[in-house]
Every structure is written in C-alpha cells, then in structure tokens.
C-alpha cells in the first residue's frame, strides 16, 4: 500500500474530514448545489431551443457547431477569462464565475440531444399526429417531446456527470467545494486529502449517473423491454446518437 | 354512432338528389348541388404544382365520392395519388381547385378542426411509440375533449369492432405485430366516428397473408360502418378487391378512368388503364364474380340406387367417364366408368370423395384454379360450410358442376 492511500485513510478517520466548512459533507453539498444549478440553468436554455429547432427541422449546422465549440473550449480557460469580468461587475469570486463556466459546459450535450431527439421523431408518427388535427403545440407536447425524452435524458445525464466532475475547478476561483480538497492538497506533502477529494468527486459523478439511469427507466416505460432491465439511455440504438463528452 | 348527415344543416335545406355527372360538375364552379346529400366528397379541378416542379403533381382532377363508397386511387409512382389524398385533409394545400366535404369547402374550416373530423390511416400505422394502444386509439377524442368515461367506452367498442384482444390495449405499440399495429391505426382513425376515412397505402408494409386478412376485415368493417373511404394504393388487385369504384391516375395526376372495377376490367378507357390493369384482365374479372352467379350445369348425376347401366347412359349423354353420385341433394362422391363392371348399383361401387370442390361464394378466379388442377377439368359446386382442402364433407349439398367453358361464359357473357 502506497503512502498516499494510507494518508487518505488517516484523513478520513480524522474529525476534520467530517465536520466544519471544510468537511466532506459541507463540501459535497456545495459541490452538488453548484452542479445542480448549472444543469438546471443549462436545461432551461437548451431544451426549449432544441425542441424549437428540432420541431421546425432547422438548425442542424447550429447543433453541430454548438457541440463542437463545447468540445473545443476548456472550462478552465472560460473560468480564467471570466474572472476579471466577474470581479469588475461585482459578481466576485467563487459561485458566479463557476456557474457560468459550468452552464457553458452543460448546454451542448443537452441542446444537441434534444434537437436530435425531436428532429428524429418517426416521420409517420408526426404525419399521423398532424393528420388527426394536432396543432404545433399539441404535436410538441403530446408527441415530439415525449418521444424524444430518452435522448433528452441522455443529454442531461452526460451534462450532469461532466458538470460534477468539472465543478472541481470552482475551487481555483474560490468556490468552496470538493475541489477545494484537491487544490489545497496539491501544495501539501500529505496527499491524503487530495486523494480523498478526488475519490469523492468520482463517487459523486457515478451517483449522479446512476440517478439519471434510474430516472430514464422510470420515465420511459415504453422503451423498456419486457422482462429485461435494459438501460435505454446509454446503450441501445439511440445511445449512439448522443454526442460524446467534450 | 353520430350521424353527420343528420346534423348537417345543409341536409335540411337541399333536397337529396342523384350525384350529377362528373363532367357537369367540372364545368360549374360553386358548391355541389346536393350538398350534404349523397355526395360526401367532391374534388373540383384540383391541381397541385409543387414549388420548383416543372409539371403539376395533380392536374385538374375532378372526382366525386358518393357517401358510403370506397373509392381507390391507383396509379404508378408519381401519379399524385397520395398528394390528392393529402389535399383532402389539407396536409397538402392545393395550388388551385376545391375540395368539397359534405358541401363545405375544406378551406373554410380551421385546418385542425377539419382533420379531427376525417379519419386518417397511413402506411406503417404511424402509432405513437410512447403511448399505450388504448391511448393511441383515444388520440382524437382527447383532442376533442370528450369526457373520460365516453373515451373509455369508445376505446372498448373499437377494440371489439376491430377484433383487438382487450389485453393488447395496455401494451405499447412496439409489442404488437405489424397486422395488429395496422388494426390499431384503423381503430384510432375511427375513434371519433368520422364520416370520411382517408387511407394511404395502409397495407403495403405487411406481409401478403396478413394483408389479405386485413383487407377482408376492412370489407367486413365497411359493411358495418358504411364510411366514405378514399384509399390510395399502388396494388391494383387490392383496389379491385376493396373498391366500389377505382380512379386510375397517370403520371402528373391526370385522371385516366374512374368506375367500378368490373367496368374498368371489361372496358378500359385508355391503353394506359389497360396496361395498368395488366395482361390478365380477364382473370382479374373472375375474382369479382362468385361461383353462385355463374350458370351451373346439372352435370352427370345419378342417385345412389341407380344401376350400372343407368350410370353408363348418363355418362354417354354427358360425354364423361364418371358420374356424380347423390343421395337426394346430398353429394356422396363419384364413380368412374371402369368401376361399374362388377356392381349392380353405383352405391356398391363405393363412390369416392371429390377433391375439386368449390362453394357458391368462392370467386370464379379460385374456381379456375381448382378446375385447372383437377383431373377431370371440372369443379363440383356444393353448399357446404365445411368444405376444405380435403374435399367435400359428407353432408355437402350438391349444386352442380362448373367447367372452363362456364368460366369463359362468365367473363365474356
């Protein structure tokens, strides 16, 4: 066993690890909070935009561009660029710059999946719906969005996992979260705290992933194969359409 | 069921009359003379030119569809049959011309209201994958805001009408076979009991066996519900089987001929129609006629008590080397000439079962198949609900015989 693992074990057994504003519970909560807000804001922007463009079947270029830009721009650079503006306009260090960077990270997968999902609703179902007299809004609400839901959930899932992992960077601009353990542990000869932070972030990301997988199962009963506990959101034909993580 | 005819105010004001000839209708603009009467649907110089297209998809089409009739639009790819259908429920807006539905210009209604009053069945059914069968069927009633109880009742009524197992109602479409999906599609189209049903190649995506069964079901259904149906198909046999009248369209949406299948097959108006109907036009006509409608011959028949000599006389008279043996009007079988040598009566020769047996409701086309594959070139016609591949059942009632000559008579006569 290496020294770092032993150090982590020692750290986890200390009271410092479980209490106070630098304890794991408080940091994990802050981490989750900033991640959740970022994903919600991103969803509020990306889902309506994706539904609208998918419904009118326009904007394929935009969808591709958005996801490519999302891939190309590192969150770290965004954070560095934002910091002076945040300070100048009074949003300060910490929460707000972190949120903005995370929202920018979260938008592309949600937007592209929603757009693809709505655009690719089977043409015969759309034609039948129109032929039976559904108006645009009814078509979106009753057919297109529900049929696209598995892909929308996949987009949210990809975003959420990325955001949880990347929220760690918030520690660099003074937003206290699990990343703080990593950043402060960096300069210390004792690597236990840094390792504990890294493991905690990884576990949190896995937990978020599992929650979305479960949500997909519950919310999309029509995709569930009878008698099989199939995971529609990750595997399966539509999983392939999901854009990869940046 | 709601009766659209009774609720249409135009029905009260205008006396019901026979639909005027198509040529006259085309000549005079304005609503049809018998609005709300016998003509359910009328296409008036309907034209569609798609943007950027050099020639029209549909060109000045005039067509009347009497109430309760099934009219098939047939033609090759690019003949505009689907475009024509979609102009009725305004999925495609005509470039010029008018569609009159119950004497009302379809453009005078809000498009969603128009469509909720017209059933629409498409290829592959187009069911909503995220909704259970019952919710798929309930689509239009929900759009119309029916109370829940009424929707539930209607869904069960339709499941019964279309022979859908009630267990299927709580399944998702993905768990249904192609034939079941198509039935659900028809149930969904009929849900709000629209007087007019549009069907766009409804059976082209299912295998031939299922297709034949669905076609039979549609005919049985139509006998019960009497909808005005416009059916688009590229399958001329389907049109001949199902349609009261067939409209043959040529490329560019030109109407070549419209009329009952029988008329088209007997007298195709143009070479195009003749080509489209195929070289086996005469054979196809046979599929429109039933054995019972042909003039049956009595044939070489003897009673079970007939002597061998009597049987030989009947054979000589009819020019056969076999006789039909009947007990009263019940078919007992047949006996060949060479079996009569050592017996006193034909019953002693132990008559054998006929293999080449048809029923009175068999089509002449099927009878033809039986005749050409039988050794004696004759089909025996029986009144026998149990007749099958093994031949006539013991209680079959003998009606007569049918020969190739009789069939030819049926086609040309």
Describe this structure in words.
The complex is a heterodimer of chains A (246) and B (413). By secondary structure, chain A is mostly helical. Chain A is built from ten helices and no strands. Chain A starts with a helix and ends in a 7-residue tail after the last helix. Mean pLDDT of chain A is 85; it is low at 226-246. Chain B is α/β, with parallel strands linked by helices. The longest helix of chain B has 18 residues, at 208-225. Chain B is elongated, with a radius of gyration of 26 Å. Classes of the chains: A mainly alpha (246), B alpha/beta (413). The A-B interface holds A 122, 124-125, 127-135, 138, 142-143, 146-147, 149, 220-222, 226 and B 89, 91, 111-117, 120, 122-132, 139-140, 143, 172, 174-175, 185, 188-189, 198.
Q: Find the count of extended strands of chain B (DSSP E, 2+ residues).
A: 16
Q: Quick one: overall form of chain A?
A: elongated
- Mind telling me the C-alpha Rg of chain B? 26 Å
**Element string of chain A (H = helix, E = strand):** HHHHHHHHHH
Quote the average pLDDT of chain B. 86
- Taken together, the total number of domains of chain A comes to 1
